[in-house]
Amino acid sequence: MANSEREKAVSWFSVEGGDGEIKSFEMRDIQWVEYKTLAQIRCDRYRLKSAVNRLLIGSRTFKCCRWKVPTQSVQVMHSAEYGKAFYAGLQVCASVWLCPVCAPKISERRRLELRGAMDEAQRQGLDVMLMTLTVPHGLGDDLDGMLDRMMKAYADTSSNRAGKNARKRVSLRGTVRVLEVTHGRNGWHPHFHVLLFLDGGMSPDQVKSILAPTWQDACEKRGLPRPSDEYGVDVRGGQDAAVYVSKWGLEHEMTKGHLKASRSAKGATPWALLAEYQETRSKRSAALWMAYAAAFKGRRQLCWSKGLRDLLAVVEMDDAEIAAQEDSAAVVLAELTDDQWRDVLTTHSEASLLQVAEENPSEVQAFLQGVAAMAKAMAIPVPVIEKAKPKARRKA
Ligand SMILES: [Zn+2]
After folding, report:
1. What separation in Å is there between the alpha carbon of 335 and the centre of ligand 1?
2. Which residue from 230, 262, 293, 375 has the highest number of Cβ atoms inside 10 Å of its Cβ?
C-alpha cells in the first residue's frame, strides 16, 4: 500500500523504555496494525548491515555500500519515477546470504520471477506444488558438512535412475529448488523448498508417496540419517505454493517482531540471529551467525532445473546484475567528496541521507553540513568528568 493511501495511520512512540523507535499503525479491518514506512525498512537494513560490518571486517559485504568503486565518486541519485533515492559509485557485494542491503533487492526480483513463473504455469494448465525436504538434525551437527551432503543428495534425486523414474511417474516438468536454514532447539535445520511444476492430475499425497523414497534413499546414500516418512518430505498444493512465493525473501522485514516467536518452535532465521546480535551484542547469536556465514557463503540459494526458465518464459539475471541494477532515468542529486562520504559513514547517516534526498531534496547540502559538524564533534574526545574524591575515612 502506498504511503499516501494511509490516511488513517497514526504514529506512536514510548517516551520511556523500549528503544525509542517511532512505530506507525494503520487501521486494517477493525484493528490497528503496525506497518513500516519504506524509510524505516531501509533504516532497519542499514542497521543490520552495521552488525555484519562488525562481524565480517574486511569482507566483501563489509565493503558493500561503504567503499567506493575505484575512480568513481559517491553520488546520491534520485529516481523521479519511483520516488526513491540511492547511491551510485559504491561497491556492492550481491550476497543473498550475508548482506541485509543486497539480499532484499535480489529477493524482490526473484520473487517477481517466481510469481511470473506461477502465472505462466497456470496459463499453460500446469499444476504447481510446494515440496519441503528435511533431514533429521540435532545439536552439534556440522552445518557445512551437512549442507554438502544435502546438496549432493538433492542432485541425486534428479540424476539417478530411481529419481528420474519417480519424476517421470508424477509427470514433473521442472523444479525451482530453494535452500533455507533456521536455528532452533535442535540446532541447525537446513532444508529445501522445491516448487514442483507438474502436468497435473495427481494429488499432493500421491506425489509425495512417489517422490519421498527417492529423497530418503539419496540421503542415506550420502551418509545422512534417513528422513522419516512423517517429517522428511511434505508436499502441498498450489495455494500453499502461491503463499510461499508471495512471502519469499521478506523475512528480513519480519526479523524484529518475530524474534521471540522464532526462538521457540519454528527456529530463528539467520536474519533474526543477526538482529538479536545487533540489539543485544549477544556472543551466542554472533557465534551462530558466523557459523552460518561460513557454511552458506558461495552456495546457490535458488536453482531452476534445466529448461524450466525457457518453458515458463522467465529471463535469467544473475545476483550481481540485480544488486548493481540502477534506474537509468535517475538524476544525480549530489556528488560527495571523500571527506563528506567518510562523515556520513562515521555518523551512520547512510539511510538518513537517502531519506532527506527523497523527502526534501533541496535540503541535502544542509544535511551534509550537519553531518560534517556531527562527525567533527564525534572526533573530539568526550571530556572526562572527574570523579568525586571519596571522603576521607573518619579515624576510629
Ligand atoms: Zn551487499
Report:
1. 21
2. 262
